[in-house]
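Batch manifest, entry 17 of 40.
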Amino acid sequence: MYNVAIVGAGPAGIFAALEIMKLKPEWKVVLIEKGQKIEKRKCLLREGYEKCPNCKRCGLLCGWGGAGAFSDGKLTLTPDVGGHLLDYMSRDKVEDLIKYSDDLYLKFGATEEVFGTDYNTFRELEREASLAELKLVYSPVRHLGTERSLDVLKNMQDYLDERITIRNDVAARNLIVECEQVKGLILDNGEEIRAEYTIIAPGREGADWLTKEFSQNKIGMVNNAVDVGVRVELPAPVFEPITSKLYESKLIYHSPTFGDEVRTFCMNPNGEVVQENYNGIATVNGHSYAEKTTNNTNFALLVSERFTEPFKEPIQYGQHIASLANMLAGGILVQRFGDLLDGRRSTPERIKASILTPTLTCATPGDLSLVIPYRQMTSIIEMLYALDKIAPGTASRYTLLYGIEVKFYSARVKLTNELETEGVKNLFAIGDGAGVTRGLIQASASGIHAARVICGR
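Output type: structure tokens
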């Protein structure tokens, strides 16, 4: 019998465990993670495979540290970006949780430097963005880089390994709910874990499981926006006037044709584009490193659509669009922006004749207009032209668009301000998989919050 069972060893689950051990070091805690320990995680594609072998559990997404372990490790230090915690508590409280979480990252080895803190520089760039009808969000960023991010997560793993029970390579299958109160969970090997409290933090990779399991237990859900788009890759000098000052710029645009919100996400100066595998569906993402650099910068352009009744399947919607790209390309599609505008598919010869060398070499040249719905594609094109006004060269015919990038957030769980599920006592849902957050720092903060509530009882 455990005091607390935690599902998922991403930042939300890890920080919940860290806080519980600080407040209740005598408690018995088990953390269940279907992937491997941080030092055993690997991606065969990055180790020389020409094509993604579609591993049963993607090494980039599953394992200690979650999907953020191999990302570029950006901690966005503002409540206005990266989640919805302001829906559950005051701004002051969220800011305190972010500061506390950031200090923990520093304790375990994060770098000291924070980008984008010069407010005068931000205001100057904000003015330029506003002239192009773009909104620039103030968002100081602590950048770890993939290598340092792995070191920090390894330090956290070693610390907790001596204090709690960590179960790797085993997944949660079902919750145990009796008399509207959670009593633990059943693992996919049939083992039963009994616990007084259960924290669900499966990350985006586990969002589909969360949605199905919570639906089965009649735990309320509300639709999240669906984020679908492309990964943009261009020469690093195009965005250098911005990235040299802010590192990552959070830009929001409302497309004139449809009024949809389009936003930049996960900007990687001198980084690389990577392929990920969500339950057999290939999607695209971007990384950057503290030491290794490329000549390119990449970022996502995501179009947010919020659907109304009777729509209840945001994950399936995103999976369907991504699977169309997989069907055409056998994986990831890549297209030059100029070819897209000319209404023709990109070919290996056209890609080779460009001034830009793709960093994702396994992507197949093709036609994204056969995959992305007209509404989202129109909004993406309009956003690229708007960005070109503040970063000339963005709308170059050589700019590469990779697809599909989609963020698998579950329908957001109906939660109290304590992040406890409505209708089932002692069950908490946190992090990206629960639709509560959208990034490392707010996911970490949600884990701290849930842990404090539990320990306070």
